């Protein structure tokens, strides 16, 4: 006999894996991985630049949870497409500037690797900004 007290709703795991299969889910997950790896390398070689990765990691995790839990349809007082666009666009610019500065200064291998990964992150955030630009839709 079925339990009538609990309606059949998708589990948290199902919702998470369904979101991770979308283009936005893959982009946000890749951005989180890039931020963590850049944070690790910057912390080891150039601690002054690690705050950018921390801030972007927090912002990206917030947007990941908002989109994964479908909160962007429930919370209407924030315009989510424009907020996401500005987050990604500003992150792309800041990662580009920071990576160029780190690469020009030269230093250890971890610093150069962080600079190169920062350029990759800048292109990843730039692609996200291009894809999520609200006027394109």
Automatic annotation (TrEMBL):
<dbReference type="Pfam" id="PF01284">
    <property type="entry name" value="MARVEL"/>
</dbReference>
<feature type="domain" description="MARVEL">
    <location>
        <begin position="19"/>
        <end position="137"/>
    </location>
</feature>
<dbReference type="GO" id="GO:0016020">
    <property type="term" value="C:membrane"/>
</dbReference>
<feature type="transmembrane region" description="Helical">
    <location>
        <begin position="85"/>
        <end position="104"/>
    </location>
</feature>
<comment type="function">
    <text>May play a role in cell differentiation in the intestinal epithelium.</text>
</comment>
<dbReference type="InterPro" id="IPR008253">
    <property type="entry name" value="Marvel"/>
</dbReference>
<feature type="transmembrane region" description="Helical">
    <location>
        <begin position="52"/>
        <end position="73"/>
    </location>
</feature>
<keyword id="KW-0472">Membrane</keyword>
<feature type="transmembrane region" description="Helical">
    <location>
        <begin position="110"/>
        <end position="131"/>
    </location>
</feature>
<feature type="transmembrane region" description="Helical">
    <location>
        <begin position="26"/>
        <end position="46"/>
    </location>
</feature>
<keyword id="KW-0812">Transmembrane</keyword>
<protein>
    <recommendedName>
        <fullName>Proteolipid protein 2</fullName>
    </recommendedName>
</protein>
<dbReference type="InterPro" id="IPR050578">
    <property type="entry name" value="MARVEL-CKLF_proteins"/>
</dbReference>
<keyword id="KW-1133">Transmembrane helix</keyword>
């Amino acid at each position: 006999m079925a339990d009538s007290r609990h309606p059949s709703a998708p589990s948290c795991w199902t919702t998470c894996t369904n979101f991770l299969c979308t283009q936005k889910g893959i982009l946000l997950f890749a951005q989180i991985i890039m931020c963590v790896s850049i944070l690790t390398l910057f912390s080891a070689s150039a601690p002054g630049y690690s705050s950018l990765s921390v801030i972007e990691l927090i912002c990206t995790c917030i947007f990941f949870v908002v989109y994964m839990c479908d909160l962007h349809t429930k919370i209407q007082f924030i315009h989510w497409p424009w907020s996401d666009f500005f987050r990604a666009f500003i992150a792309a610019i800041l990662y580009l500037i920071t990576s160029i500065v780190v690469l020009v200064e030269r230093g250890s291998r971890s610093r150069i690797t962080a600079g190169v990964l920062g350029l990759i992150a800048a292109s990843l955030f730039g692609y996200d900004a291009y894809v999520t630009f609200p006027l394109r839709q």
